[in-house]
């Protein structure tokens, strides 16, 4: 009996020593490294086995099973963040896991010069040795699907009409219940008035019979809405956007070409009689709605986005006043199309597009504060 007790005691002591050794290895034993500093990257969406593989491929000798066990026991297996990391000699398995769970990634500097286009920014990123790009085009379906699969949410603000991109993004999000915000535009309710007024006003409950040029946009919006509930799809249908950008340089598609034409010719021009009316929204108010939609909007929802409206004749006269060009003048439909092309002239500058965003205010608590595109033009456009 005594021998049995001694053997049992020895086994318990051995077990304690093994556990103590394992704990010491996790907390105190430095991981073998090929250099004093090692950089490595954890890819988006990596499992813990993938993390162990990527760390080992960088030359840091981490036993995969040990990493998996410690990560699971500590709960850090669900907290590891993607990104680039740097390890220095002497660090342990525990410090490595803590760094990755905090997302304590290394910083790299990329300089952008004020006034650069997006194309120039992409070129600068492509030249940087420490930056891995996932920037492609809207036709890169496999890349879009992979990035959507790895993302917590997707906001498509690139193109309202690119069906291939929408299909790829929805495929990546399928069955996840994650949010997908698609940016549409209210030219889908536009007419071919070419400067004449209209009393038609649209809410989300108003039936829309689009002009043939806009049938594709309406159908694409419906495809997105129908992807719910497997994806928390939200369509935000923006009216004329004005205001200064909050980030990289960018321009909306309506006021800037009117200003550019006025500067070039010395005469500010509207189409026809300039009595056509568009609803409008300030970019900062619009950004607030995107944040609210991401947080609160239910799956399969559609919202018009506006806070005020103006006739194009009044808007263009404000441009003329701001540029000190005298009286604005009308252009014929033919002259406008020759200058701007059919899409821009007919549906962006010559049509009526009057919507109301009461649903967004009621459902999401949206409270826009800026209501006059004309006031912004007078205050912000300079000769």
Properties at a glance:
11 strands; 383 residues; Rossmann fold; Dna Ligase, domain 1; 4-stranded parallel sheet; 3-stranded mixed sheet; elongated; 15 helices; alpha/beta
Overview of this structure, please?
With 383 residues, the protein is α/β, with parallel strands linked by helices. It has two domains: 89 residues, Dna Ligase, domain 1 (2-Layer Sandwich), CATH 3.30.1490; 243 residues, Rossmann fold (3-Layer(aba) Sandwich), CATH 3.40.50. 44% of the residues lie in helices and 14% in strands. It contains 15 helices and eleven strands. The strands form four sheets. It has a four-stranded parallel sheet with strand order 3-4-5-9, sandwiched between helices. The longest helix is centred in the first third of the chain and has 26 residues. About 5% of the residues have low confidence.
Q: What are the SSEs and their pairings?
A:
Layout: H1 2-27, E1 37-42, H2 48-57, H3 64-74, E2 83-88, H4 93-102, H5 118-127, H6 141-150, E3 154-156, H7 163-173, E4 179-185, H8 215-226, E5 232-238, E6 240-242, H9 255-265, E7 269-271, E8 277-282, H10 283-296, E9 301-305, E10 309-311, H11 312-322, E11 329-331, H12 333-340, H13 342-349, H14 358-364, H15 373-380
Parallel strand pairs: 3-4, 4-5, 5-9, 6-8, 7-11
Antiparallel strand pairs: 1-2, 8-10
Helix pairs in contact: 2-3, 6-7, 11-15, 12-13
Structural category is: alpha/beta
| Count of individual beta strands | 11
SSE order, one letter for each helix or strand: HEHHEHHHEHEHEEHEEHEEHEHHHH
Question: Could you give the distance between the termini?
Answer: 102 Å
CATH class call of the largest domain: Alpha Beta
Mean model confidence by pLDDT: 87
Q: Do you know the CATH topology of the largest domain?
A: Rossmann fold
Q: What's the helical proportion of residues?
A: 40-55%
Q: Characterize the main sheet.
A: 4 strands, parallel
**CATH homologous superfamily of the largest domain - what is it?**
NAD(P)-binding Rossmann-like Domain
Count of the separate structural domains: 2
- How does the overall form come out from the CA principal axes? elongated
**Strand composition percent:** 5-15%
Strand order of the largest sheet: 3-4-5-9
Rounded Rg: 29 Å
DSSP summary: helix tally: 15
Identify low-pLDDT runs. Answer: 7-26
Instruction: Tell me what the CATH architecture of the largest domain is.
Output: 3-Layer(aba) Sandwich
């Amino acid at each position: 009996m005594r021998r049995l007790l001694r053997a049992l005691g020895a086994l318990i002591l051995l077990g304690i020593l093994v556990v103590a050794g394992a704990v010491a290895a996790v907390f105190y034993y430095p991981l073998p490294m090929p250099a004093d500093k090692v950089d490595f990257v954890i890819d988006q969406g990596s499992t813990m086995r993938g993390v162990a593989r990527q760390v080992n491929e960088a030359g840091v000798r981490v036993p995969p099973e040990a990493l998996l066990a410690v990560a699971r026991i500590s709960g850090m297996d669900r907290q590891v963040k993607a990104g680039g990391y740097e390890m220095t000699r002497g660090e342990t398995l525990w410090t490595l896991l803590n760094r990755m769970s905090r997302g304590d990634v290394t910083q790299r500097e990329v300089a952008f010069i004020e006034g650069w286009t997006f194309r120039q920014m992409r070129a600068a990123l492509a030249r940087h040795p420490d930056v891995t790009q996932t920037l492609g085009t809207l036709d890169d379906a496999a890349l879009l699907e992979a990035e959507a699969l790895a993302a917590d949410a997707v906001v498509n603000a690139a193109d309202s009409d690119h069906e291939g991109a929408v299909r790829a993004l929805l495929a990546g999000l399928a069955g996840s219940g994650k949010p997908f915000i698609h940016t549409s535009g209210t030219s889908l309710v536009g007419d071919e008035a070419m400067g004449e007024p209209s009393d038609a006003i649209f809410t989300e409950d108003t039936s829309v019979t689009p002009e043939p040029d806009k049938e594709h946009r309406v159908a694409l919006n419906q495809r997105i809405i129908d992807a719910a509930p497997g994806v928390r799809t939200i369509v935000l249908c923006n009216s004329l956007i004005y205001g200064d950008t909050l980030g990289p340089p960018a321009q909306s598609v309506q006021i800037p070409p009117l200003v550019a034409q006025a500067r070039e010719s010395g005469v500010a021009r509207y189409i026809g009689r300039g009595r056509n009316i568009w609803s409008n929204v300030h970019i900062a108010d619009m950004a607030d709605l995107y944040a609210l939609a991401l947080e609160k909007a239910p799956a399969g929802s559609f919202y018009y986005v506006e806070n005020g409206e103006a006739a194009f004749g009044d808007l263009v006269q404000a441009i003329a006043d701001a540029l000190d060009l005298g009286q604005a003048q009308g252009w014929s439909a033919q002259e406008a199309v020759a200058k701007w092309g059919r899409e821009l002239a007919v549906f962006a500058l010559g049509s009526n597009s009057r919507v109301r965003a009461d649903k967004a205010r009621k459902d999401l608590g949206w409270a826009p504060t800026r209501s006059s595109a004309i006031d912004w033009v007078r205050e912000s456009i300079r000769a």
